[in-house]
Design brief:
Layout lengths: L3 H4 L17 H11 L4 E5 L2 E4 H16 L8 E4 L5 H12 L3 E4 L6 H11 L3 E4 L1 H4 L8 E4 L22 E7 L7 E6 H14 L7 E4 L7 H4 L2 H4 L4 E4 L2 H4 L2 H10 L4 E5 H8 L11 E5 L14 E6 L9 E4 L14 E2 L3 E6 L12 E7 L5 E2 L3 H7 E3 L9 E11 L5 E6 L4 E3 L2 E3 L1 H8 L5 E12 L2 E10 L7 H9 L10 E4 L36 H14 L17 H15 L5 H6 L3 H16 L11 E4 L2 E4 L1
Parallel strand pairs: 1-10, 3-4, 3-5, 5-6, 9-10, 11-12, 12-13, 25-26
Antiparallel strand pairs: 1-2, 7-8, 8-18, 13-14, 14-15, 16-17, 17-20, 19-20, 20-21, 22-23, 24-25, 27-28
Length: about 625
């Protein structure tokens, strides 16, 4: 008897779709547009854009960009909220010959300013509100939806693009305290798209998703394979994409057939109930270590993926079959098309099967290097000792893995102390550099702790200057001005000094686990809280294993996630005999708002002629009724 997964398994290969060999991705998108101009290309809630409309709008914008001198290898900033305008902008930049630089508007203004300055982008596509946060004196600003763009021709400008030209530059966390831009060419992007379309049998009938943040390179992976295949892309709203419960319902309601979901959320999806006739056939995941195998009843195929930004999103990939084994984590698969994976020791010698080695990657997906950083490029992109081809290189990932007997790779962590959090790659030194700018902080370090399995958190250890004090709120506010939310530590541990090894280095293994005695607290008097606020605080602290939660602290930024959110709702129901809607937590995840909602529900239940809310209430999310 076959399982649902076996019945719906994709034809998974590692070959390259011939449509994308020695070609630019724009040619594939143009072919789909000519074949079916009326088909849906993009959908964001009620907004729908057909391939024909996408083509015309991006063509006009491309001509507008050309008027500013945009051409091959010109970097163009793209700073917009998640919307169809991002897709239009990126496509227009490529059609003008340029390379897009994604800039997530959720990042602090200082970080966005650095990216814009470092890229030397002569043009920025944004909106009026975001433009006020950015130093635009050195570049021309093009506003999304500018009516003046409608006056340009709706046919694509004629631009000669070669495979070695840049397609995009994406900034990642930098070990020196500043982000670094990774340069990806059209050839590398085409290799990713060709492999993806062949591996997952992508056709125009597919309905794919876009939910990754703009600063996460998986966002690139979510766009181009599907536009090149004539499929439709459906944008997930911010509330839905951060909740496994909401996301599951949305995927079903939108009849999604293939989706990428970052590992932490994907692991929650695996454990949920799915109808046997679920339209989705492939769930792609990556960005962090996958800890669980899928259950046997899961009606779609789970594929685990690994790859640094420096190798165009994906370097290895593999289907994860149902398995009850708990002695090792699911593997990260095998090399994709035209990728070479070498596990090497410190002498650049191949290690034996089963022996840990640093992952070195070569092949068609390799980045050109780091923008404006020839020193760092030479350090990390080294000559390939296994190739006689002039100029052939390998990228030193800093990741450890071992080769399994079946040829797949098992990921073992980092050679250095780089961290993956919520699918993002984080250089702790960048957080440390920002933290040490606070006048009260003498020295600091940051690491990821997983004291509860599956609950990885950034923890900061700090030593203060003499006769100074600081609160977690003050530190977070200081960091929030310089770092994106995903890089903010969820806990701050105060130490008199760092423990050292006999060689004088910081002994990370000796750093204490967070507890009430060493955690930096906020100076909020407990008696300033109402009884309800006090009880809600106790419940939140118990779930998060901490004792410094303020009334206005964000539950999710302190380390909470959708599964803990569901537990919080259940505990509050038991404590107060009220049913809080899960959406209330996701929209306003603070003790103050939750307490106010509890008091409102209690008042309504006790009002004359009113009935207490039922133990279970249903809400409609994206057309699907669900219990919360």
């Amino acid at each position: 008897m076959t399982t649902p997964q076996q019945q719906r398994a994709v034809v998974y290969t590692h070959s390259l779709d011939s449509r994308f060999q020695d070609t630019c991705i724009l040619e594939a998108v143009a072919a789909q547009t000519a074949r079916m101009p009326g088909a849906v290309a993009l959908q964001a809630e009620e907004e729908i854009l057909t391939y024909g409309e996408l083509d015309r709008q991006s063509n006009r914008l491309a001509h507008h960009l050309r008027s500013f001198g945009v051409g091959p290898n010109t970097l163009v900033g793209l700073c917009l909220p998640r919307s169809v305008d991002i897709m239009i902008g990126a496509l227009a930049i490529l059609k003008a010959g340029g390379a897009f630089v994604p800039m997530d508007p959720a990042y602090p203004a200082d970080r966005l300013a650095f990216m814009l300055e470092d890229a030397h982008a002569p043009v920025l596509i944004t909106n009026e509100v975001l433009a006020r946060r950015l130093p635009t004196a050195k570049c021309s600003v093009v506003y999304a939806g500018d009516p003046a763009v409608a006056d340009y021709p709706d046919r694509a400008p004629r631009v000669d693009i070669v495979p070695s030209d840049l397609a995009y530059v994406i900034y990642t966390s930098g070990s020196t305290g500043a982000p670094k831009g990774v340069e990806i060419t059209h050839a590398s992007l085409s290799n990713l798209v060709g492999w993806h379309c062949e591996a997952f049998c992508v056709t125009a009938a597919d309905r794919a998703t876009s939910l990754a943040g703009l600063g996460f390179d998986a966002a690139v992976w979510e766009i181009w394979p599907y536009l090149a295949s004539g499929a439709s892309i459906h944008l997930v709203d911010d509330l839905t994409r951060n909740s496994a419960d909401f996301l599951r319902d949305w995927l079903l309601a939108q009849r999604i057939t293939i989706s990428f979901v970052p590992t932490p959320v994907a692991e929650h999806l695996l454990m949920m109930d799915w109808p046997a006739d679920t339209p989705m056939r492939v769930l792609l995941t990556g960005g962090d270590t996958l800890h669980h195998y899928p259950p046997r009843h899961l009606p779609f195929t789970l594929v685990n993926n690994y790859g640094p930004t420096e190798f165009t999103v994906v370097a290895t990939s593999g289907v994860i079959p149902p398995d009850s084994r708990a002695d090792f984590v699911p593997p990260i698969g095998r090399a994709i098309s035209n990728a070479q994976i070498h596990l090497l020791d410190e002498n650049l010698t191949q290690v034996d099967e089963g022996t840990p080695g640093e992952i070195h990657i070569g092949g068609a997906g390799l980045a050109r290097g780091y923008h404006n950083r020839p020193d760092l490029t030479a350090e990390r992109f080294i000559p390939n000792p296994f190739s006689s081809e002039p100029g052939d290189r390998l990228y030193k990932t800093g990741d450890l893995a071992r080769r399994l007997p079946d040829g797949q790779f098992e990921f073992l962590g980092r050679v250095d102390d780089q961290i993956k959090i919520r699918g993002y790659r984080v250089e702790p030194n960048e957080i440390v550099a920002a933290m040490n700018r606070h006048p009260a902080v003498r020295e600091s370090l940051v690491l990821a702790r997983e004291d509860v399995p599956g609950d990885k958190r950034l923890v900061a250890y700090i030593v203060l200057n003499p006769n100074t004090s600081v609160t977690t709120a003050t530190l977070r506010d200081s960091l929030r001005d310089r770092l994106p939310e995903y890089m903010l530590p969820s806990m701050f541990i105060r130490l008199e000094q760092f423990p050292l090894t006999p060689h004088g280095k910081i002994d990370r293994a000796a750093l204490p686990a967070p507890d009430t005695a060493n955690m930096l607290l906020d100076e909020t008097p407990v008696d300033s809280r109402t009884p309800v606020e006090q009880r809600v605080t106790e419940v939140v602290c118990g779930l998060l294993h901490r004792n410094d939660v303020n009334l206005d602290d964000n539950f999710f930024l302190l380390g909470g996630h959708s599964m803990l959110g569901a537990q919080l709702i259940a505990r509050l129901r038991d404590a107060f005999k009220v049913q809080i809607a899960l959406r209330t937590l996701f929209r306003s995840p603070t003790v103050r708002v939750l307490s106010a909602e509890i008091e409102r529900l209690n008042a309504a239940a006790n009002a004359p002629g009113q009935l207490a809310p039922p133990e279970s209430a249903s809400v409609a999310i994206s057309g699907v009724e669900r219990q919360v």
